[in-house]
Design a protein that fits this description.
Helix content is about 40%, strand content about 20%. The protein is an alpha+beta fold. The relative contact order is 0.13.
Length: about 140
């Protein structure tokens, strides 16, 4: 069932877990509950990201499908810069928490942590002497470089 779910997510977009459940039932997986789909999505590290139309859809993460995640996420980033103390990521409105979560899920030795608002993320480096490396790590994580 895990492989079937992964294939479904590679082929089409789903905005609800129930839509995924219905597609799995159509493939012959009977007696699947929404909670089973939820656990399956967590196991596959599936996240919800805004698509080109702003609708939030389930998406494979970098570990399973880097090109799709990077394309969806990088389109939501407006800028990444630093002030010698913090790395600041500007996103489209409403996207900062999702983008910060992605940074947090892909830890890098130069990143201490993130704080997100509506459209701004502050990324604290482990060491301000490595702020440039921290900015580069954030950009790489988000598929910008």
């Amino acid at each position: 069932m895990t492989a079937a779910c992964k294939r479904l997510l590679q082929k089409q977009s789903f905005s609800t877990q129930d839509d995924i459940r219905h597609s799995l039932v159509e493939l012959g997986f009977e007696d699947i509950s929404q909670s089973t789909v939820s656990r399956l999505l967590a196991k596959l590290k599936i996240i919800k990201v805004p698509n080109a139309y702003g609708k939030r859809v389930y998406c494979l993460t970098e570990s399973t499908e880097p090109a799709h995640l990077h394309a969806a996420i990088s389109s939501q980033i407006e800028s990444v810069t630093h002030n010698q103390l913090l790395v600041v990521v500007k996103t489209r409105p409403g996207c900062a928490q999702l983008v910060a979560r992605i940074i947090d899920l892909h830890p890098h030795t130069t990143v201490l942590g993130t704080i997100a608002g509506n459209d701004t993320i502050m990324v604290a480096p482990h060491d301000i002497k490595q702020i440039g490396e921290c900015e580069a790590a954030v950009c790489q994580c988000l598929g910008l470089r």
